[in-house]
Write a structure and sequence with these properties.
By secondary structure, this protein is an alpha+beta fold. The chain contains nine helices and six strands. It has a single domain, classed as Glutaredoxin (3-Layer(aba) Sandwich). The longest helix has 17 residues. The chain is globular. It binds 2-acetamido-2-deoxy-beta-D-glucopyranose. The site of 2-acetamido-2-deoxy-beta-D-glucopyranose has 5 residues, from helix 2.
């Protein structure tokens, strides 16, 4: 049985990264029973974020205040460590538009490649201090996971915009940031839920399927 998982991604949202890792754990432990297809659709947390990027640490400190920032850092560091990663807030934050252009474009080369690209960009942004608005970072990620035509796409700032806007209109206009994950068009899961929550939703979707 195939389970279709649609994800609305805000590429610079840390809860997305955590949710993705938990989803992957759930998929890994359920993959004998199901075939999965994971698709990513764009969602913008902050459409006006500057393209050239701004200092991420300073941005968080301003947004949360210095003491909240410290608390968030230690919480995120723990969560990331438990997932096997190092949390890193160095580098820049800013517009995610180009990353959405690339992710949307990559779907035509296979959803497995699209998924690998998202994983790479999350690692770049959350663990390696790389800015996903930087063309070089995007091109390196595309090359690493074997996506062709990325250079032509990113070189022309008008390319792929229509596709992103179509997706935004078709899918993301009906959600308000949450839920981020939808399984078989029905089971909605928000934010950084643990793997068990995904596993229960897989089972519920499978039970629906067998009743039909
Ligand atoms: C961001 O600002 C901090 C000081 O608040 C500085 O140490 C760091 O190097 C800056 N990072 C970048 C990428 O400019």
């Amino acid at each position: 049985m195939i389970l279709l998982i649609v994800i609305f991604t805000m590429n610079s949202c840390i809860i997305m990264m955590i949710g993705k890792q938990n989803l992957q754990k759930a998929i890994d432990s359920a993959k004998d029973g199901f075939n999965f297809e994971v698709r990513w659709h764009p969602f913008f947390l902050n459409p006006d974020a500057p393209k050239e990027g701004i200092n991420k640490t300073d941005f968080y400190k301003q947004k949360f205040g210095a003491s909240q920032y410290e608390a968030m850092m230690s919480r995120m560091t723990k969560i990331f460590n438990s997932l096997g990663f190092e949390y890193d807030t160095s580098g820049l934050t800013g517009s995610t538009l180009d990353s959405h252009r690339l992710i949307t474009f990559s779907a035509s080369q296979g959803y497995d490649k699209q998924n690998a690209l998202v994983e790479e960009l999350f690692l770049n942004y959350f663990c390696q201090g790389k800015y996903i608005g930087d063309r070089k970072v995007l091109l390196d990620a595309a090359e690493k996971v074997g996506i062709e035509g990325a250079s032509e796409l990113l070189h022309d700032p008008t390319k792929g915009i229509e596709e992103v806007n179509e997706e935004l209109e078709k899918y993301s206009s009906r959600i308000n940031g949450v839920p981020h994950f939808v399984i078989n068009e029905k089971y909605k899961i928000s934010g950084g839920q643990p793997p068990d929550v995904f596993l229960r939703a897989f089972q519920a979707a499978a039970d629906d399927g067998s009743r039909q």
